[in-house]
Amino acid sequence: MQDHELLVNNLNKRKFVECEEGNTSGRTETLHQGSLKRPNEGVTRVVKDGYQWRKYGQKVTRDNPSPRAYYKCSFAPSCTVKKKVQKSVDDAHLLVVIYEGVHNHESMEKEPDDTSNRRLNSPMEMLKYDEALVEQMANSLRRNPDFIEDLADAISSNILEYDLF
DNA sequence: CGAGTTTGACCGGCGC
DNA sequence: GCGCCGGTCAAACTCG
Fold first, then answer.
1. CA angle, A134 then A137 then A139, to 5°
2. What is the residue range of A136's domain?
3. Which nucleotide is nearest to A69 (CA to C1')?
4. Is residue A19 part of a domain?
5. Number of structural domains chain A divides into
6. pLDDT digit of tens for each residue in chain A (165 aa)?
7. Calpha distance A57→A63 (Å, rounded)
């Protein structure tokens, strides 16, 4: 399933904090605020979860003061998958990603270079992200003890998969 | 020059 | 019927 792919991808990019299922038609993920939305921060441009997304709109919604961004999958013209990205109401450090639909094509997993991830911005930035990441994880885990099991399960199964590569 | 982003306008659904 | 709101479109702009 793509769930795991996304999870692993985000972990690789050091942006993933927590993931929760439970949206009706789509999936919801909460990401640590990283370079996700700002291509000019010098990291990867559009590819961050294995797919290529093209932004087609942005809106400020009522329930959340932060603008919500709308993305379509631009990797395959026939792919109608969309995703919405907005900051969490609870925690502005988190990005909530809502996926709608299912990809009808392979992901772009084979990112040409793992080296493109390599430099977030600077070692300082990485440290900052790491700190915030740990903090966020601790907080969310404290709040959601049940989540530990799911997360550990997902991570461990993916680690095993990755070991094969 | 092409691909992607920004941003204001537009449209349709829904509640009153 | 009207207004609000979320979602989408498209022209202008930016960047590599």
1. 110
2. 131-160
3. C7
4. no
5. 2
6. 433 333 333 333 333 333 333 333 455 565 554 434 333 333 334 445 667 888 999 998 887 888 888 988 877 767 778 888 887 766 666 778 888 877 766 655 554 444 444 444 444 444 444 444 444 544 544 445 444 445 444 444 444 444 445
7. 18
In this structure, is the CB of residue A103 within 7 Å of any atom belonging to strand C? no
A54 touches strand B (CB under 7 A): yes
Q: Is A113 left (phi over 0), alpha (psi -120 to 50) or beta?
A: beta
Same domain? For A39 and A82 the reply is yes
The answer to whether the C-beta of A113 is closer than 7 A to strand C is no
Same domain? A90 vs A46: yes
CATH number at residue A81: 2.20.25.80
Q: What is the pTM of this model?
A: 0.58
Q: Which of A100, A119, A144 is the last residue in one of the domains?
A: A100
